[in-house]
């Protein structure tokens, strides 16, 4: 039976938490840390490229920096930060008290965390991975040091965590919606999180298989990629990009969702073309699986295959264009407020369109032979990832900060941050288009003077310093704004997450809300008394118990990974045993959670 | 109140209603019929190869075809995918199959020796 609620120490509480809000904050904290780390790696690279033939870092270190920058930013920064928002916001937006599987949610976080730590420990244990974030074979299978073993196992462990999180969100969104919250009344952020989770479910297995093959090749002498033994190096590229292309949509779709929320809120209008937006999101997710070979135009898959993948790639511009126009029409005639969150959303539109245009250029397979592996590609994907995902993350941070932490970030500092970051971003990456067109290959540690590359590279580095400085402003903002207490609904919001007290109660909704329209809170403000209608009488709320098991389970895999990297089998077995024992304990130990009593809820709601 | 409501681990009391009993009997009949049919399909697959009545060229696609039929029957009769409330399971399953159908043969063509 359920037990009474017992007060725990703060640290123990965070380590054992299964509350989706706290796990969301853990994701944001860990993702923020890795984001800073990836940024630092980028700065070191930009300093090395500031002047021709500079010896700031060695070639080997440069290779490690570029590999870890890409890997960290994609797997350990962008995805966890989006997961942070998804964790915190999606259950609130659908009127749920938690995700479907709170224990698995915690397990997903700790797996990601230990995977990330493992990957970064490689810096101190024989050198980081150095084969690029794509780790193409045979470079990664036959010509690289232990760093790649850390890459393989670190990504494998954090990949399990991601897969768990993705499945959890799918089940949550399908099963846990409040009464009246039909699929076509879900906010766009929830919709895009749903599609991104489906992409995770179908795309990550390809990465898992690829990493498994690479692991067997490196550790146990398999020959999947060894040409002299009848293997084929291109298999890795296919597997990686079958995963890798949906991966970029896993990143961008939730960011699209954030912009849809922010633009509608700060234009004081319902999102223009809601059903078209949902449809476009689904189409983007769907087409994302059919374009992977556009990363491989120069591999030699033949002109017909190249043409098919080129046309499929260009087709994605159509649903994306639908979205861009819908955002513009959302703002059209609206009462636009230029808050920091909205500035990021508005700044996103032209920045992302530029990245989209170069995307179409790259999709032209004949021209791609010229662009391939030059800085033009670097400029393109930084335009879509920074101009799309990172601006989305910052927009979401400023928008949801009052909901998550109970205080508003300073708007003046925020606007300085926005303008410096946007300026620095364009300064860094716009010139890289031309650097690339002049023929500078990507992933090289230096270049010769007098080839017209000197001044453009210097400009690019100066821009990078602007971005770094802007990010420091954001960190300062987080600290200095703490006293800036916020009310529960500071932006005059439209969706369910703004209809509950601040700080968010542990149980989210004292009574499950009744949803009567799209933008339910706005509907109640216009047609009701401004408060959410309840769908159930006030009653005791059943809550899950916290558990330390996820952290130990993940630690077990972490230990096992070391055993595999150094081929010390007893360590591998001990690590796997730790994990299996935890799974066994979890399976046989009955845990029915506890109840928060009606009276306590009444007290809390009355006071707040 | 039934103790099962407040504590899901408490045992349920009483037997099933007449309607449920009828439904269960019907389901059991379906199970048996589909089970027999699947045994039949498996034996057909075996006989196809064991006897030389069917040419080799045709045997493999034929076996694959009855395998597909059998998988579908397993999913819908044994794993109850056709019951009510399985809409999402069906959507996710078929999306997965669709993605696999798109990627796996494409991949086989692309890494094969045949170039277009």
Folded structure, characterized:
- The complex is a heterodimer of chains A (608) and B (116).
- Chain A is mainly alpha-helical.
- The two termini of chain A are 30 Å apart.
- In chain A, helix 12 packs parallel to helix 15.
- Helices cover 66% and strands 2% of the residues of chain A.
- Chain A has one domain: Cytochrome c oxidase-like, subunit I domain (Cytochrome C Oxidase, Chain A).
- Chain A has a two-stranded antiparallel sheet with strand order 1-2. In chain A, strands 3-4 form a two-stranded antiparallel sheet.
- Chain A is built from 20 helices and 4 strands.
- Chain B is mainly α.
- Chain B has 2 domains: 68 residues; 33 residues.
- Helices cover 73% and strands 0% of the residues of chain B.
- Chain B is built from 4 helices and no strands.
- In chain B, helix 2 packs antiparallel against helix 3.
- The longest helix of chain B is centred in the first third of the chain and has 33 residues.
- Chain B is flat, with a radius of gyration of 22 Å.
- Chain B starts with a helix and ends in a 5-residue tail after the last helix.
- At the A-B interface, helix 7, helix 8 and helix 10 of A face helix 4 of B.
Number of strands of chain B: 0
Class per helix and strand makeup of chain A: mainly alpha
Assembly classification: heterodimer
Reported for the largest beta sheet of chain A, the result is: 2 strands, antiparallel
Structural class of chain B: mainly alpha
Spatial arrangement of strands, main beta sheet of chain A: 1-2
The averaged pLDDT of chain A comes out at: 94
Shape of chain A: globular
């Amino acid at each position: 039976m359920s037990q009474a609620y017992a007060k725990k120490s703060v640290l123990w509480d965070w380590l054992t938490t299964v509350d989706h809000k706290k796990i969301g904050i853990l994701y944001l904290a860990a993702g923020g840390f890795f984001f800073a780390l990836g940024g630092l790696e980028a700065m070191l690279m930009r300093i090395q490229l500031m002047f021709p033939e500079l010896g700031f870092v060695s070639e080997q270190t440069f290779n490690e920096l570029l590999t870890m920058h890409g890997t960290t930013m994609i797997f350990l920064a962008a995805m966890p930060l989006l997961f942070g928002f998804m964790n915190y916001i999606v259950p609130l937006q659908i009127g749920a008290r938690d995700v479907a599987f709170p224990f698995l949610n915690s397990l997903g976080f700790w797996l990601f965390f230990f995977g990330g730590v493992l990957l970064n420990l490689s810096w101190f244990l024989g050198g980081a991975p150095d084969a690029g974030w794509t780790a193409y074979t045979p470079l990664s299978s036959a010509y690289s040091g232990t760093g790649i073993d850390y890459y393989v196992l670190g990504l494998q462990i954090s990949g399990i965590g991601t897969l768990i999180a993705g499945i959890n969100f799918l089940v949550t969104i399908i099963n846990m919606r409040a009464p009246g919250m039909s699929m076509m009344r879900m906010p766009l952020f929830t919709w895009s999180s749903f599609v991104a989770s489906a992409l995770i479910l179908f795309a990550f297995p390809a990465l898992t298989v690829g990493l498994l093959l690479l692991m067997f090749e490196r550790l146990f002498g398999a020959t999947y990629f060894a040409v002299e033994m009848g293997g084929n190096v291109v298999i890795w590229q296919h597997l990686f990009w079958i995963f890798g292309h949906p991966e970029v949509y896993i990143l961008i779709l939730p960011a699209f969702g954030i912009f849809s929320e922010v633009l509608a809120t700060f234009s004081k209008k319902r999102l223009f073309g809601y059903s078209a937006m949902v449809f476009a999101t689904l189409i983007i997710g769907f087409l994302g699986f059919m374009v992977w070979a556009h990363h491989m135009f120069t591999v030699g898959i033949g002109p017909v295959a190249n043409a098919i993948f080129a046309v499929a790639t260009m087709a994605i511009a159509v649903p994306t264009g639908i979205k861009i126009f819908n955002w513009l029409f959302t703002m059209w005639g609206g009462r636009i407020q230029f808050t920091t969150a909205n500035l990021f959303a508005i700044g996103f539109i032209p920045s992302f369109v530029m990245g989209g245009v170069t995307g179409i250029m790259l999709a032209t397979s004949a021209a791609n032979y010229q662009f391939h592996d030059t800085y033009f590609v670097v400029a393109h994907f930084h335009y879509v990832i920074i101009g799309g995902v990172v601006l989305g993350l910052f927009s979401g941070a400023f928008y949801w900060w009052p909901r998550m932490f109970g205080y508003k970030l300073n708007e003046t500092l925020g606007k300085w941050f926005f303008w410096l970051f946007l300026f620095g971003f364009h300064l860094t990456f716009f010139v890289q288009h031309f650097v690339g067109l002049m023929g500078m290959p990507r992933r090289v540690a230096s270049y010769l003077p007098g080839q017209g590359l000197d001044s453009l590279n210097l400009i690019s580095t100066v821009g990078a310093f602007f971005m770094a400085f802007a990010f420091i402003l954001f960190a300062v903002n987080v600290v200095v704004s703490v006293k800036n207490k916020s009310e529960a609904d500071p932006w005059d919001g439209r969706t369910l997450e703004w209809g509950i007290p601040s700080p968010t109660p542990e149980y989210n909704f004292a009574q499950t809300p009744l949803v009567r329209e799209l933008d339910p809170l706005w509907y109640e403000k216009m047609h009701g008394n401004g408060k959410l209608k309840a769908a159930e009488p006030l009653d005791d709320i059943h809550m899950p118990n916290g558990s330390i098991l996820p952290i130990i389970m993940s630690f077990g895999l972490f230990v096992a990974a070391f055993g595999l990297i150094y081929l010390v089998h007893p360590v591998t077995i001990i690590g796997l045993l730790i994990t299996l024992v935890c799974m066994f304990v979890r399976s046989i130990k009955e845990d029915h959670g506890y109840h928060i009593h009606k009276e306590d809820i009444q007290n809390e709601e009355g006071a707040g | 109140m039934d103790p099962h409501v407040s504590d899901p681990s408490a045992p349920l009391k009483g037997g099933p209603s007449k309607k449920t009993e009828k439904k269960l009997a019907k389901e059991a009949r379906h199970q048996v019929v589909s089970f027999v049919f699947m045994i039949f399909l498996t034996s057909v697959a075996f006989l196809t190869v064991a006897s030389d009545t069917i040419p080799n060229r045709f045997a493999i696609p034929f076996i694959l075809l009855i395998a597909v039929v059998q998988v579908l029957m397993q999913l819908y009769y044994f794993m109850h995918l056709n019951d009510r409330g399985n809409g999402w399971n069906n959507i996710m399953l078929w999306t997965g199959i669709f993605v696999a159908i798109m990627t796996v043969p494409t991949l086989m063509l692309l890494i094969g020796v045949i170039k277009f």
